[in-house]
Amino acid sequence: MALIEVRVPDIGDFKDVAVIELLVKPGDAVRVEQSLLTVESDKASMEIPSAAAGVVKELKVKLGDKVNIGDLICVLEAAAAPETAAASATPPAQVNTQAEPPSVRAEPPSVRAEPVEAPANPARVPPTAALPPHEPGQPSGNLPHASPSVRKFARELGVPLEEVKGTGPKDRITQEDVEAFTKAVMRGELSTKSATAKAPAGGGAALGLLPWPKVDFAEFGPILRQDMGRIKKISGANLHRNWVMIPHVTNHDDADITELEAFRVLLNKENEKSGIKITMLAFLIKACVAALQKFPEFNSSLDGEQLVLKQYFNVAFAADTPKGLMVPVIKNADKKGILQISQEMGELAKKAREGKLGPADMQGACFTISSLGGIGGRYFTPIINAPEVAILGVCKSQTEPVWDGKQFQPRLMLPLSLSWDHRVIDGASAARFNAYLASVLADFRRTML
Ligand code: CAO
Q1: Among 280, 369, 384, 391, which is best to mutate for testing ligand 1, by the most ligand atoms less than 8 A from CB?
Q2: Which residues contact ligand 1 via a Cβ below 6 A?
Q3: Which CATH number belongs to the domain containing residue 17 in this structure?
Q4: Which pLDDT band holds residue 17 (cuts at 50, 70, 90)?
Q5: Which residues contact 141 (CB under 8 A, 6 or more apart)?
Q6: Separation of first and last alpha carbons in the chain
Q7: Is 264 helix (H, G, I), strand (E, B) or coil?
Q8: Which pLDDT value is given to residue 447?
Q9: Residue 236 backbone phi and psi in degrees, to 5
Q10: By three-state DSSP, how is residue 145 classified?
Q11: Is the domain of 196 the same as that of 294?
Protein backbone atom coordinates (compact mmCIF):
# COMPACT_ATOMS: atom_id res chain seq x y z
CA MET A 1 0.00 0.00 0.00
CA ALA A 2 1.39 3.43 -0.96
CA LEU A 3 2.39 5.73 1.84
CA ILE A 4 1.65 9.45 1.69
CA GLU A 5 3.35 12.02 3.87
CA VAL A 6 1.00 14.87 4.71
CA ARG A 7 2.74 18.09 5.62
CA VAL A 8 1.68 21.49 6.91
CA PRO A 9 0.60 23.47 3.85
CA ASP A 10 1.23 27.15 3.24
CA ILE A 11 -0.30 28.88 6.25
CA GLY A 12 0.74 32.39 5.33
CA ASP A 13 2.68 34.40 7.88
CA PHE A 14 2.01 32.01 10.73
CA LYS A 15 5.14 30.60 12.33
CA ASP A 16 5.63 28.19 15.22
CA VAL A 17 1.91 27.71 15.67
CA ALA A 18 0.93 25.40 18.50
CA VAL A 19 -0.98 22.20 17.94
CA ILE A 20 -3.99 22.55 20.23
CA GLU A 21 -6.12 19.72 18.97
CA LEU A 22 -5.56 16.42 17.22
CA LEU A 23 -8.59 15.55 15.16
CA VAL A 24 -7.51 12.08 14.01
CA LYS A 25 -5.63 9.15 15.46
CA PRO A 26 -3.77 6.18 13.93
CA GLY A 27 -6.23 3.83 12.28
CA ASP A 28 -8.73 6.55 11.35
CA ALA A 29 -9.85 6.72 7.73
CA VAL A 30 -9.38 10.25 6.43
CA ARG A 31 -11.05 11.97 3.49
CA VAL A 32 -9.41 14.62 1.35
CA GLU A 33 -9.78 17.98 3.08
CA GLN A 34 -10.82 16.41 6.32
CA SER A 35 -9.31 18.37 9.19
CA LEU A 36 -6.33 16.63 10.79
CA LEU A 37 -5.47 19.04 13.56
CA THR A 38 -6.10 22.51 14.89
CA VAL A 39 -3.25 24.93 15.38
CA GLU A 40 -3.36 28.24 17.14
CA SER A 41 -1.23 31.35 16.86
CA ASP A 42 -1.64 34.55 18.86
CA LYS A 43 -3.94 35.77 16.09
CA ALA A 44 -6.07 32.87 15.10
CA SER A 45 -6.73 29.22 15.19
CA MET A 46 -7.02 27.13 12.07
CA GLU A 47 -7.73 23.60 11.08
CA ILE A 48 -5.20 21.91 8.85
CA PRO A 49 -6.89 19.69 6.28
CA SER A 50 -5.57 16.51 4.77
CA ALA A 51 -4.32 16.75 1.22
CA ALA A 52 -5.09 13.12 0.54
CA ALA A 53 -7.37 10.29 1.50
CA GLY A 54 -6.20 7.22 3.34
CA VAL A 55 -5.84 5.61 6.70
CA VAL A 56 -3.68 7.29 9.33
CA LYS A 57 -0.68 5.04 9.80
CA GLU A 58 1.38 7.33 12.01
CA LEU A 59 0.81 10.73 13.58
CA LYS A 60 3.99 12.77 13.63
CA VAL A 61 2.79 15.61 15.85
CA LYS A 62 1.46 15.76 19.36
CA LEU A 63 -0.45 18.29 21.41
CA GLY A 64 1.64 21.34 22.21
CA ASP A 65 4.10 20.85 19.33
CA LYS A 66 4.96 23.98 17.37
CA VAL A 67 4.64 23.50 13.63
CA ASN A 68 5.58 25.41 10.52
CA ILE A 69 4.99 25.13 6.81
CA GLY A 70 6.37 21.85 5.48
CA ASP A 71 6.43 20.00 8.81
CA LEU A 72 5.29 16.40 8.66
CA ILE A 73 1.85 15.88 10.20
CA CYS A 74 1.16 12.25 9.51
CA VAL A 75 1.72 9.32 7.23
CA LEU A 76 -1.32 7.92 5.45
CA GLU A 77 -1.78 4.58 3.81
CA ALA A 78 -3.33 5.60 0.54
CA ALA A 79 -6.91 4.66 -0.13
CA ALA A 80 -7.34 2.14 -2.93
CA ALA A 81 -8.60 4.73 -5.38
CA PRO A 82 -6.84 7.82 -4.14
CA GLU A 83 -9.10 10.74 -3.71
CA THR A 84 -7.19 14.01 -3.98
CA ALA A 85 -7.88 17.69 -4.00
CA ALA A 86 -6.15 18.03 -7.35
CA ALA A 87 -9.01 20.03 -8.75
CA SER A 88 -8.37 22.74 -6.24
CA ALA A 89 -7.48 26.11 -7.71
CA THR A 90 -5.17 26.86 -4.81
CA PRO A 91 -1.38 26.64 -5.11
CA PRO A 92 0.28 23.31 -4.40
CA ALA A 93 0.69 22.60 -0.76
CA GLN A 94 3.79 21.24 0.94
CA VAL A 95 2.65 17.69 0.59
CA ASN A 96 5.39 15.20 0.13
CA THR A 97 4.13 12.30 -1.89
CA GLN A 98 6.60 9.65 -0.98
CA ALA A 99 4.88 7.24 -3.30
CA GLU A 100 1.64 7.21 -5.18
CA PRO A 101 -0.52 9.15 -5.68
CA PRO A 102 1.36 11.95 -7.39
CA SER A 103 0.33 15.58 -7.65
CA VAL A 104 -1.48 15.71 -4.38
CA ARG A 105 -2.64 19.17 -3.49
CA ALA A 106 -4.05 20.70 -0.40
CA GLU A 107 -6.50 23.44 0.21
CA PRO A 108 -5.12 26.21 2.37
CA PRO A 109 -6.21 25.68 5.92
CA SER A 110 -9.38 27.33 7.04
CA VAL A 111 -8.16 30.28 9.02
CA ARG A 112 -10.50 31.90 11.45
CA ALA A 113 -9.37 34.93 13.31
CA GLU A 114 -12.23 35.13 15.73
CA PRO A 115 -11.40 32.58 18.42
CA VAL A 116 -9.01 34.96 20.10
CA GLU A 117 -11.96 37.16 20.85
CA ALA A 118 -14.75 36.35 23.21
CA PRO A 119 -17.55 34.17 22.08
CA ALA A 120 -20.74 35.87 21.04
CA ASN A 121 -23.59 36.24 23.50
CA PRO A 122 -21.46 35.79 26.59
CA ALA A 123 -24.35 36.70 28.84
CA ARG A 124 -26.08 33.48 27.93
CA VAL A 125 -23.54 31.42 29.84
CA PRO A 126 -23.57 31.78 33.59
CA PRO A 127 -20.20 32.32 35.30
CA THR A 128 -20.41 29.00 37.02
CA ALA A 129 -20.93 27.24 33.73
CA ALA A 130 -17.37 25.99 33.29
CA LEU A 131 -17.40 22.25 33.62
CA PRO A 132 -14.53 20.32 35.09
CA PRO A 133 -12.04 20.08 32.29
CA HIS A 134 -11.97 17.14 29.99
CA GLU A 135 -8.89 16.18 28.09
CA PRO A 136 -9.09 18.24 24.95
CA GLY A 137 -7.69 17.16 21.70
CA GLN A 138 -7.83 13.42 22.24
CA PRO A 139 -9.24 12.16 18.98
CA SER A 140 -12.33 10.12 19.47
CA GLY A 141 -12.23 8.53 16.06
CA ASN A 142 -15.61 9.95 15.26
CA LEU A 143 -14.81 13.58 15.54
CA PRO A 144 -17.65 16.05 15.98
CA HIS A 145 -18.17 18.67 13.36
CA ALA A 146 -17.48 22.17 14.73
CA SER A 147 -15.60 25.30 13.77
CA PRO A 148 -12.32 26.20 15.52
CA SER A 149 -14.05 28.99 17.40
CA VAL A 150 -16.71 26.63 18.72
CA ARG A 151 -14.02 24.11 19.64
CA LYS A 152 -12.12 26.80 21.51
CA PHE A 153 -15.29 27.93 23.26
CA ALA A 154 -16.02 24.34 24.28
CA ARG A 155 -12.46 23.86 25.51
CA GLU A 156 -12.71 27.00 27.64
CA LEU A 157 -15.88 25.70 29.26
CA GLY A 158 -14.55 22.16 29.60
CA VAL A 159 -17.30 20.80 27.36
CA PRO A 160 -16.54 17.46 25.67
CA LEU A 161 -17.68 18.12 22.11
CA GLU A 162 -18.16 14.41 21.40
CA GLU A 163 -21.10 14.50 23.80
CA VAL A 164 -22.79 17.55 22.25
CA LYS A 165 -25.52 17.11 19.68
CA GLY A 166 -25.05 19.45 16.73
CA THR A 167 -28.05 21.33 15.38
CA GLY A 168 -26.25 23.20 12.60
CA PRO A 169 -26.06 22.22 8.93
CA LYS A 170 -24.88 18.60 8.57
CA ASP A 171 -25.15 18.25 12.35
CA ARG A 172 -22.44 20.86 12.86
CA ILE A 173 -22.12 21.86 16.50
CA THR A 174 -22.82 25.54 17.06
CA GLN A 175 -21.95 27.77 19.97
CA GLU A 176 -25.60 27.65 21.03
CA ASP A 177 -25.36 23.86 21.20
CA VAL A 178 -22.35 24.12 23.53
CA GLU A 179 -24.16 26.63 25.70
CA ALA A 180 -27.30 24.50 25.83
CA PHE A 181 -25.23 21.45 26.76
CA THR A 182 -23.53 23.38 29.56
CA LYS A 183 -26.81 24.62 30.98
CA ALA A 184 -28.36 21.18 30.82
CA VAL A 185 -25.42 19.69 32.74
CA MET A 186 -25.54 22.48 35.30
CA ARG A 187 -29.27 21.93 35.80
CA GLY A 188 -28.66 18.22 36.25
CA GLU A 189 -30.73 17.35 33.16
CA LEU A 190 -27.72 15.81 31.47
CA SER A 191 -24.75 13.98 32.81
CA THR A 192 -21.40 13.91 31.16
CA LYS A 193 -18.56 11.48 31.56
CA SER A 194 -16.25 14.46 31.64
CA ALA A 195 -18.19 16.26 34.34
CA THR A 196 -16.64 13.90 36.81
CA ALA A 197 -13.27 14.00 35.11
CA LYS A 198 -10.18 14.41 37.16
CA ALA A 199 -9.10 17.86 38.31
CA PRO A 200 -6.53 19.70 36.25
CA ALA A 201 -2.84 19.09 36.83
CA GLY A 202 -1.86 20.39 40.21
CA GLY A 203 -5.27 19.66 41.68
CA GLY A 204 -6.54 23.22 41.23
CA ALA A 205 -10.11 24.02 40.35
CA ALA A 206 -11.13 25.22 36.91
CA LEU A 207 -11.12 29.01 36.73
CA GLY A 208 -14.74 29.19 35.68
CA LEU A 209 -14.32 32.73 34.41
CA LEU A 210 -16.95 34.71 32.60
CA PRO A 211 -16.39 35.04 28.88
CA TRP A 212 -14.93 38.39 27.89
CA PRO A 213 -17.67 41.04 27.60
CA LYS A 214 -18.69 41.66 24.04
CA VAL A 215 -19.78 45.25 23.55
CA ASP A 216 -20.80 47.03 20.40
CA PHE A 217 -18.83 50.18 21.20
CA ALA A 218 -20.11 51.94 18.08
CA GLU A 219 -23.53 51.90 19.65
CA PHE A 220 -22.34 54.54 22.12
CA GLY A 221 -20.28 56.79 19.83
CA PRO A 222 -17.77 56.85 16.98
CA ILE A 223 -14.82 54.48 17.29
CA LEU A 224 -11.57 53.68 15.48
CA ARG A 225 -10.05 50.21 15.35
CA GLN A 226 -6.29 49.62 15.32
CA ASP A 227 -4.36 46.40 15.06
CA MET A 228 -2.12 45.77 18.06
CA GLY A 229 1.54 46.07 17.06
CA ARG A 230 3.78 43.01 17.05
CA ILE A 231 5.81 44.09 20.08
CA LYS A 232 2.70 44.87 22.11
CA LYS A 233 1.27 41.49 21.24
CA ILE A 234 4.43 39.67 22.27
CA SER A 235 5.00 41.67 25.44
CA GLY A 236 1.28 41.50 26.27
CA ALA A 237 1.28 37.71 26.12
CA ASN A 238 4.37 37.56 28.33
CA LEU A 239 2.98 40.03 30.85
CA HIS A 240 -0.30 38.15 30.98
CA ARG A 241 1.42 34.83 31.67
CA ASN A 242 3.66 36.38 34.32
CA TRP A 243 0.79 38.15 36.06
CA VAL A 244 -1.35 35.03 36.14
CA MET A 245 1.33 32.50 37.02
CA ILE A 246 3.49 34.35 39.54
CA PRO A 247 2.07 35.14 42.99
CA HIS A 248 3.12 38.78 43.09
CA VAL A 249 3.45 40.96 46.16
CA THR A 250 4.68 44.55 45.96
CA ASN A 251 6.47 46.42 48.77
CA HIS A 252 6.71 50.19 48.61
CA ASP A 253 9.43 52.27 50.21
CA ASP A 254 11.28 55.57 49.77
CA ALA A 255 14.96 56.31 49.39
CA ASP A 256 16.52 59.61 50.37
CA ILE A 257 18.56 60.52 47.28
CA THR A 258 19.29 64.14 48.20
CA GLU A 259 23.07 63.70 48.23
CA LEU A 260 23.09 61.22 45.36
CA GLU A 261 21.19 63.58 43.06
CA ALA A 262 23.55 66.44 43.98
CA PHE A 263 26.51 64.14 43.17
CA ARG A 264 24.90 63.09 39.87
CA VAL A 265 24.37 66.74 38.83
CA LEU A 266 28.01 67.51 39.76
CA LEU A 267 29.30 64.51 37.79
CA ASN A 268 27.30 65.53 34.74
CA LYS A 269 28.83 69.03 34.92
CA GLU A 270 32.33 67.58 35.20
CA ASN A 271 31.70 65.15 32.38
CA GLU A 272 29.93 67.59 30.08
CA LYS A 273 32.48 67.15 27.33
CA SER A 274 32.31 63.35 27.39
CA GLY A 275 28.82 63.41 25.88
CA ILE A 276 27.74 60.74 28.35
CA LYS A 277 24.68 61.59 30.44
CA ILE A 278 24.94 60.08 33.89
CA THR A 279 21.46 58.96 34.82
CA MET A 280 19.76 58.13 38.10
CA LEU A 281 18.94 54.77 36.56
CA ALA A 282 22.66 53.94 36.34
CA PHE A 283 23.00 54.50 40.10
CA LEU A 284 19.87 52.43 40.65
CA ILE A 285 21.37 49.55 38.66
CA LYS A 286 24.54 49.71 40.75
CA ALA A 287 22.58 49.91 44.02
CA CYS A 288 20.41 46.96 42.94
CA VAL A 289 23.51 44.89 42.23
CA ALA A 290 24.66 45.55 45.80
CA ALA A 291 21.23 44.46 47.10
CA LEU A 292 21.19 41.37 44.87
CA GLN A 293 24.60 40.41 46.21
CA LYS A 294 23.40 40.82 49.79
CA PHE A 295 20.10 38.97 49.17
CA PRO A 296 20.95 36.23 46.65
CA GLU A 297 17.43 34.78 46.41
CA PHE A 298 16.45 37.94 44.51
CA ASN A 299 19.06 36.99 41.89
CA SER A 300 17.53 33.57 41.28
CA SER A 301 15.04 31.72 39.10
CA LEU A 302 12.72 28.86 39.89
CA ASP A 303 13.40 25.67 37.96
CA GLY A 304 10.88 23.05 39.03
CA GLU A 305 11.57 22.50 42.69
CA GLN A 306 15.06 23.97 42.50
CA LEU A 307 16.24 27.51 42.86
CA VAL A 308 18.91 28.58 40.38
CA LEU A 309 21.11 31.11 42.14
CA LYS A 310 22.94 33.14 39.54
CA GLN A 311 26.50 34.16 40.20
CA TYR A 312 26.39 36.93 37.61
CA PHE A 313 24.53 40.23 37.77
CA ASN A 314 22.73 41.22 34.59
CA VAL A 315 20.19 43.97 35.15
CA ALA A 316 17.48 44.77 32.62
CA PHE A 317 15.65 48.07 32.33
CA ALA A 318 12.26 48.73 30.77
CA ALA A 319 12.43 51.17 27.87
CA ASP A 320 9.37 52.86 26.51
CA THR A 321 9.43 52.89 22.70
CA PRO A 322 6.91 54.08 20.12
CA LYS A 323 6.15 50.42 19.34
CA GLY A 324 5.82 49.24 22.93
CA LEU A 325 7.85 48.12 25.88
CA MET A 326 11.34 46.70 25.32
CA VAL A 327 13.62 45.37 28.04
CA PRO A 328 17.34 45.55 27.17
CA VAL A 329 19.92 44.14 29.56
CA ILE A 330 23.11 45.60 31.05
CA LYS A 331 25.34 42.56 31.32
CA ASN A 332 27.74 42.05 34.25
CA ALA A 333 26.67 45.29 35.89
CA ASP A 334 28.71 44.36 38.97
CA LYS A 335 31.90 44.73 36.93
CA LYS A 336 30.99 48.10 35.39
CA GLY A 337 31.20 51.65 36.69
CA ILE A 338 28.47 54.29 36.60
CA LEU A 339 29.94 55.95 33.49
CA GLN A 340 30.04 52.72 31.50
CA ILE A 341 26.53 51.75 32.61
CA SER A 342 25.19 55.19 31.68
CA GLN A 343 26.82 54.99 28.28
CA GLU A 344 25.54 51.44 27.58
CA MET A 345 22.07 52.37 28.78
CA GLY A 346 21.99 55.37 26.46
CA GLU A 347 23.03 53.15 23.53
CA LEU A 348 20.55 50.40 24.37
CA ALA A 349 17.67 52.87 24.92
CA LYS A 350 18.45 54.43 21.52
CA LYS A 351 18.53 51.02 19.84
CA ALA A 352 15.22 50.19 21.53
CA ARG A 353 13.55 53.36 20.26
CA GLU A 354 14.86 52.70 16.75
CA GLY A 355 13.65 49.09 16.87
CA LYS A 356 17.22 47.83 16.46
CA LEU A 357 17.62 45.72 19.59
CA GLY A 358 18.78 42.19 18.81
CA PRO A 359 17.83 39.11 20.84
CA ALA A 360 21.25 39.15 22.56
CA ASP A 361 20.54 42.67 23.86
CA MET A 362 17.46 41.41 25.67
CA GLN A 363 18.58 38.05 27.04
CA GLY A 364 20.14 36.85 30.25
CA ALA A 365 18.61 39.26 32.76
CA CYS A 366 18.60 38.42 36.48
CA PHE A 367 16.52 41.37 37.69
CA THR A 368 14.67 44.24 36.04
CA ILE A 369 14.17 47.91 36.84
CA SER A 370 11.22 49.78 35.44
CA SER A 371 11.76 53.51 35.89
CA LEU A 372 8.96 55.98 35.35
CA GLY A 373 11.02 58.61 37.14
CA GLY A 374 11.36 60.86 34.13
CA ILE A 375 7.61 60.83 33.65
CA GLY A 376 5.95 60.99 37.06
CA GLY A 377 3.74 59.02 39.38
CA ARG A 378 4.17 57.84 42.93
CA TYR A 379 4.12 54.04 43.23
CA PHE A 380 2.99 51.22 40.99
CA THR A 381 2.96 47.44 40.75
CA PRO A 382 5.53 46.28 38.20
CA ILE A 383 4.99 42.82 36.74
CA ILE A 384 7.86 40.38 37.26
CA ASN A 385 9.71 39.49 34.08
CA ALA A 386 9.75 35.66 34.24
CA PRO A 387 11.86 33.68 34.94
CA GLU A 388 13.19 36.43 37.19
CA VAL A 389 11.74 36.56 40.71
CA ALA A 390 11.66 40.30 41.40
CA ILE A 391 11.42 43.67 39.69
CA LEU A 392 11.93 47.19 40.95
CA GLY A 393 9.60 49.99 39.92
CA VAL A 394 10.83 53.55 40.40
CA CYS A 395 8.79 56.73 40.22
CA LYS A 396 9.53 60.44 40.26
CA SER A 397 11.55 61.78 43.16
CA GLN A 398 10.13 64.73 45.07
CA THR A 399 11.35 67.03 47.77
CA GLU A 400 9.46 66.21 50.96
CA PRO A 401 9.62 67.25 54.61
CA VAL A 402 11.41 64.49 56.49
CA TRP A 403 11.67 64.48 60.29
CA ASP A 404 15.33 64.21 61.40
CA GLY A 405 14.52 63.73 65.09
CA LYS A 406 14.54 67.45 65.83
CA GLN A 407 12.93 69.12 62.86
CA PHE A 408 11.61 68.60 59.35
CA GLN A 409 14.22 68.76 56.63
CA PRO A 410 13.58 69.11 52.90
CA ARG A 411 14.84 65.83 51.40
CA LEU A 412 14.65 64.45 47.88
CA MET A 413 12.74 61.18 48.20
CA LEU A 414 12.63 58.47 45.54
CA PRO A 415 9.59 56.13 45.59
CA LEU A 416 10.51 52.45 45.18
CA SER A 417 8.07 49.62 44.41
CA LEU A 418 9.51 46.12 44.60
CA SER A 419 7.38 43.26 43.24
CA TRP A 420 8.55 39.79 44.24
CA ASP A 421 7.56 36.19 43.70
CA HIS A 422 6.11 34.88 46.94
CA ARG A 423 7.07 31.31 46.01
CA VAL A 424 10.71 32.27 46.36
CA ILE A 425 10.82 35.34 48.57
CA ASP A 426 9.01 36.22 51.75
CA GLY A 427 7.80 39.59 52.98
CA ALA A 428 10.54 40.09 55.57
CA SER A 429 13.28 39.57 52.95
CA ALA A 430 11.53 41.97 50.60
CA ALA A 431 11.30 44.64 53.30
CA ARG A 432 15.02 44.12 54.09
CA PHE A 433 15.94 44.29 50.39
CA ASN A 434 14.10 47.60 50.01
CA ALA A 435 15.53 49.03 53.22
CA TYR A 436 19.06 48.06 52.19
CA LEU A 437 18.55 49.42 48.68
CA ALA A 438 17.30 52.72 50.14
CA SER A 439 20.28 52.88 52.49
CA VAL A 440 22.72 52.35 49.59
CA LEU A 441 21.00 55.02 47.51
CA ALA A 442 21.24 57.35 50.51
CA ASP A 443 24.93 56.63 50.89
CA PHE A 444 26.86 54.45 48.44
CA ARG A 445 29.69 54.07 50.96
CA ARG A 446 27.54 51.33 52.51
CA THR A 447 28.49 49.06 49.61
CA MET A 448 32.07 49.13 50.93
CA LEU A 449 31.13 47.75 54.33
N1 CAO B 1 12.81 61.22 39.60
C2 CAO B 1 12.78 62.43 39.06
N3 CAO B 1 13.31 62.71 37.86
C4 CAO B 1 13.88 61.70 37.18
C5 CAO B 1 13.96 60.39 37.70
C6 CAO B 1 13.38 60.19 38.96
N7 CAO B 1 13.36 58.98 39.51
N8 CAO B 1 14.57 59.60 36.81
C9 CAO B 1 14.89 60.37 35.77
N10 CAO B 1 14.46 61.62 36.00
C11 CAO B 1 14.59 62.76 35.11
C12 CAO B 1 16.02 62.92 34.70
O13 CAO B 1 16.74 63.73 35.61
C14 CAO B 1 15.86 63.58 33.37
O15 CAO B 1 15.63 64.94 33.54
P16 CAO B 1 16.47 66.01 32.67
O17 CAO B 1 16.07 65.72 31.25
O18 CAO B 1 16.01 67.30 33.21
O19 CAO B 1 17.89 65.70 32.93
C20 CAO B 1 14.59 62.98 32.80
O21 CAO B 1 13.87 62.49 33.93
C22 CAO B 1 14.83 61.84 31.82
O23 CAO B 1 15.63 60.93 32.45
P24 CAO B 1 16.80 60.14 31.75
O25 CAO B 1 17.15 60.73 30.44
O26 CAO B 1 17.87 60.02 32.78
O27 CAO B 1 16.16 58.81 31.45
P28 CAO B 1 15.93 57.68 32.49
O29 CAO B 1 17.25 57.14 32.86
O30 CAO B 1 15.04 58.10 33.58
O31 CAO B 1 15.13 56.62 31.65
C32 CAO B 1 14.56 55.05 30.06
C33 CAO B 1 15.63 56.00 30.50
C34 CAO B 1 15.00 54.34 28.79
C35 CAO B 1 14.34 54.02 31.14
C36 CAO B 1 13.29 55.85 29.84
O37 CAO B 1 13.44 56.64 28.70
C38 CAO B 1 12.06 55.04 29.71
O39 CAO B 1 11.79 54.46 28.66
N40 CAO B 1 11.26 55.01 30.78
C41 CAO B 1 9.95 54.32 30.77
C42 CAO B 1 10.07 52.89 31.27
C43 CAO B 1 8.70 52.28 31.32
O44 CAO B 1 7.87 52.46 30.46
N45 CAO B 1 8.44 51.55 32.39
C46 CAO B 1 7.15 51.02 32.63
C47 CAO B 1 7.16 49.56 32.38
S48 CAO B 1 5.67 48.85 32.87
O49 CAO B 1 4.70 49.26 31.70
Answers
A1: 280
A2: 279-281, 317-320, 325, 349, 370-374, 382, 394, 396-397, 414
A3: 2.40.50.100
A4: confident
A5: 25, 27, 28
A6: 79
A7: helix
A8: 87
A9: -60, -45
A10: coil
A11: no
- The backbone torsions φ and ψ at residue 374, rounded to the nearest 5 degrees and listed phi first, read -75, -10
- Residue 445, judged by CB atoms within 10 A of its CB (0-12, 13-18, 19+), counts as exposed
**Same domain for 288 and 413?**
yes
Pocket of ligand 1, candidates 234, 371, 417: which has the most ligand atoms within 8 Å of its Cβ, to mutate?
371
pTM above 0.70, yes or no: no
Query: Checking phi first, is residue 353 left (phi over 0); if not, alpha (psi -120 to 50) or beta?
Result: alpha
Do 285 and 363 fall into the same domain?
A: yes
pLDDT per position as a tens digit, 39-98 = 877 656 678 888 899 999 999 999 889 999 899 999 999 876 544 433 332 333 322 323
Q: 216-231 pLDDT, tens per residue?
A: 999 999 999 999 888 8
Neighbours of 100 (CB within 10 A): 12
Q: How many domains does the chain have?
A: 3
Strand ranges for 310-379 from DSSP E: 315-317, 319-321, 324-326, 329-330, 367-371
Backbone torsion region of residue 209, taken as left when φ is above 0, otherwise alpha when ψ lies between -120 and 50, otherwise beta: beta
Contact 135, 198 (CB under 8 A): no
Query: Residue 143 has what pLDDT?
Result: 61
Q: In terms of Cα–Cα distance, which of 113, 112, 114, 119 is closest to 211?
A: 119
Name the residue at shortest CA distance from atom 32 of ligand 1: 319
Same-domain status, 258 and 220: no
Cβ count within 10 A of residue 161: 23
Q: Is the dihedral of CA 351, 352, 357, 360 positive or negative?
A: positive
CA angle 103, 104, 110 (to 5 degrees): 140
SS3 3: strand
Per-residue pLDDT, averaged over 93-105, amounts to 30
Residue 272 identity (one-letter amino acid): E
Mark whether 173 and 222 lie in a shared domain: yes
Which amino acid is it at 118? Answer: A
Note if 422 is an active site residue.
yes
Nearest CA to ligand 1 atom 36: 319
Domain with 9 in it: 3-116
Query: What is the residue with the minimal CA distance to atom 26 of ligand 1?
Result: 279
pLDDT at 142: 55
At 333-384, the pLDDT tens digits run 999 999 999 999 999 999 999 999 999 999 999 999 999 998 999 999 999 9
